[in-house]
Amino acid sequence: MPTALITGATAGIGAAFARRLAADGHRLVLVARDEPRLDDLAGEMHERHGAPAEGKHEVLPADLATAEGRAVVEQRLRDGAAPVDMLVNNAGIGSVGTFWDTDAEALNAQFELGTTAVFRLTRAALEGMVERDRGAVLTVASFAGLLAGRNGASYTAAKTYAVSLSAEIAAELRGTGVQAMAVCPGWTHTELHQRSGSDCPEDSSAWWLEADEVVDTALRDLARGRTRSVPGRRYRLLLAAVDAMPHAFTRR
Ligand SMILES: NC(=O)c1ccc[n+]([C@@H]2O[C@H](COP(=O)([O-])OP(=O)(O)OC[C@H]3O[C@@H](n4cnc5c(N)ncnc54)[C@H](OP(=O)(O)O)[C@@H]3O)[C@@H](O)[C@H]2O)c1
């Protein structure tokens, strides 16, 4: 039975990955800060699908915005006795406001989650995956990482880094049994916008995605060997249209 480690598993897209991967027969390692919520989710998975043959789903409380928290998860990813077959780099936070008037500590946590945590965890996971010649690293970046919008300068820059890192690693992995894929959703109904108070469209807007749709598209794209997953037809069409326009125009 394959094992998947998911960061930011207590809510939104991470919780949707956890539910879907458990249903598909994965043993889970669930990472986030809120331990009682992680326990609840693991309990729900045991109730619905029973305990995996290899042992119960694991919960690993960690603050990935800190070096200490990341070290705990890196150590778990390097544990050759209980190998992780799929890493889902998903934990993230939003923000509201311009770069200069947003709290510097909040921006720093957003940056650490979107860049350093993705870099450190991916690096730790790939050592064993490449040696075993199997595995996958999915990084939940954002549509903002493909097409800059008004999502916050630092958020957009961090997501651009995540998309670029994932694409370069995917190129380096070509010819191995290991995959890397960036997941680039647009506005998705989760807790993120409520938590950060970020700007988003009316609830009735057709631009909204559901977390389950993001996960379904990602896992389908992974099975097809793709290195980038953009859920939602509207977003794919927008990207195709923008790609066809002169860069100077779309940048504005
Ligand atoms: N929702 C959208 O519109 C949207 C669009 C594009 C991309 N994304 C990306 O999708 C990913 C998931 O976001 P979401 O929308 O599902 O948000 P969400 O519902 O707010 O969930 C965020 C998850 O990240 C965890 N988290 C936050 N800070 C953390 C920290 N310091 N250490 C460890 N875990 C932490 C949270 O758990 P705890 O609070 O328990 O730690 C929670 O499980 C993010 O990377 C986000 O940037 C979201």
TrEMBL record:
Pfam families: adh_short. The keyword Oxidoreductase applies. Gene3D superfamilies: NAD(P)-binding Rossmann-like Domain (3.40.50.720). SUPFAM superfamilies: NAD(P)-binding Rossmann-fold domains (SSF51735). It is an enzyme of class 1 (oxidoreductase). It comes from the Bacteria. InterPro entries: KR_dom (IPR057326), NAD(P)-bd_dom_sf (IPR036291), Sc_DH/Rdtase_CS (IPR020904), SDR_fam (IPR002347). Residues 2-190 form the Ketoreductase domain. Keywords: Oxidoreductase. One of its GO terms (molecular function) is oxidoreductase activity. Its EC number is 1.-.-.-. Belongs to the short-chain dehydrogenases/reductases (SDR) family. This is SDR family oxidoreductase.
